[in-house]
Amino acid sequence: MSLTAQTDHLGITLGPIHDLAHEASWTGRTSVGQAWVFDSAAKIDPRLWRGAFRQHVRDARFYEVTEHTLKGQFSQRYFVLRNEASGATAVQPFFFVSQDLTAGLPSSVRQWVGALRRRWPKLLFLTILMVGSPAGEGQLDLREAWVCRALREVLAAYEKVARPSMVMLKDFPSEYRLLFGEFIKHGFARMPGLPSAQLELDFASFEEYMQTKLSKVFRKSLRRKFKVLSQYPPITMEVVSDITPYIDEILPLYLQVYQRARLSFEVLNRDYFLMLSALLPDKVRYFLWRQEGRIIAFNLCLLHDGTLYDLDVGFDYSLALDLHLYFVTWRDVIQWCLQHGLHTYHAGPLNYDPKLHLRLALLAQDVYARHPSKPLNLLLRIAMDYLGPVRYEPLLRKFPNYAELFE
Q1: pTM for the complete prediction?
Q2: Does position 346 have pLDDT exceeding 50, yes or no?
Q3: CATH class of the domain defined by 202-342
């Protein structure tokens, strides 16, 4: 291929192809062109990087946040894939993590494994190369067949150098299933990951929502919860993009929720919340609830294309249960969405009981995995049926669209 100027998928001329590889930590080839690995977003051509994932809620700036603020929990990297025929270029983040394969299993099983780990500390811990976001659902920069083909081929080549225990594509929405047939045909197994959930805001008010969406029993239960508030000092809500003045108040509330979680994934920190405010002020919304001037709850959300994405919450649990803060804050967020003309509310995985009663629909997310050893990969395909966390979330079966997780 000649070293002439190339044009990326945004129509930006990036200059000679070798410029992309200047600071790459690894270079390889696929059947459609070249591929590189970068150990930092700062080393990728900024003209290419600025346009990456711009059609997604988690755009390039979000990956900069996770790279810089959560780096002690995983090692984040980036593939850059080039289609030589068209000149198109795609960026694909990935990361290395030491994964506990029992994390989604029942506590009885984890206790049994814990006993075995007294003798074999690394039992069922694997170093995994994960394609996708370390703090959210997976996504492709370009949803095109050549990207899947190039990504599958570059993973096969790069794993010979990086030598992970396993390669996984993490939490990709079901809309990728047809495209990701490329991975299934080449030895990857698919299993349902823990689904996110969504509510279409096709009603004019919260009262209409309760009347038309909720069961009579749950509607009465909600009204009783809200009525309790009259016995306490009033709760007020404000919405901000810059969390800097409030970081010392919200961080302990987040940690209270994290420490009570049955399943624990990445733990967020002060720098994460602050950097989100600094880099994504157009998307970030922090909902803050106060009682007598003190913040007692917060909700971190991202705005994108008419949808509010609910990412993280924090509660003061000395008050949360008595004040029913989960439902109070959720009501206030939905009302805010309606006031600002949003059409969809999107929530992450877990905490399925209230989502079931609040009539959210499940959004399937899939995990794709392959072991480098063919014999062990056959065993992995069997084991994934039992290691998958969906099996151990019985509430999911009660959702009307539960079957979509397995289609």
Answers
A1: 0.90
A2: yes
A3: alpha beta
